[in-house]
Amino acid sequence: MSLIRKNGASAPKELGLFWPMQTTEGATIDVFIFASALQAFDADPVGPVGLLKRHRPLLERLASEKYERDGVTGTNLLHITDHDLRGAQAGDGITDEEA
């Protein structure tokens, strides 16, 4: 049996990249960023996973700062946005190893 397109189906959803982080209290928080936010931040064609690996120290720092400032949603999700990335780039800048 083959698959066919479902009539009236919604458009494909954007790719999100997720990784777990842990609070000092031991709770697990799922951090995520949309692939398009990473690709707007760094246009290198290595792909979303390559960009995540390259910028992981920066993203983890941003996640930690955002968690301390805003907390998380009821589902323990923490969303790093393109606004967060632009703020890091404009604020204290990014180092060569993070770029």
Task: Describe this structure as you would to a colleague.
The chain is an alpha+beta fold and 99 residues long. Helices cover 39% and strands 18% of the residues. It is built from three helices and three strands. It has a three-stranded mixed β-sheet with strand order 1-2-3. The chain starts with 15 loop residues before the first strand and ends in a 9-residue tail after the last helix.
Strands, helices and their partners?
Layout: E1 16-22, E2 28-34, H1 35-41, H2 48-70, E3 77-80, H3 82-90
Parallel strand pairs: 2-3
Antiparallel strand pairs: 1-2
N-to-C series of helices and strands: EEHHEH
- The helix/strand class is alpha+beta
Helix content: 25-40%
> How many H/I helical runs?
3
Strand % is: 15-25%
Unreliable sequence segments: 93-99
Quick one: biggest sheet?
3 strands, mixed
Spatial extent as radius of gyration = 16 Å
Separation of the first and last Cα atoms: 47 Å
How many strand segments?
3
Shape: globular
User: Largest sheet, order of strands side by side?
Assistant: 1-2-3
Please supply descriptive tags for the structure shown above.
single chain, 99 residues, alpha+beta, 3-stranded mixed β-sheet
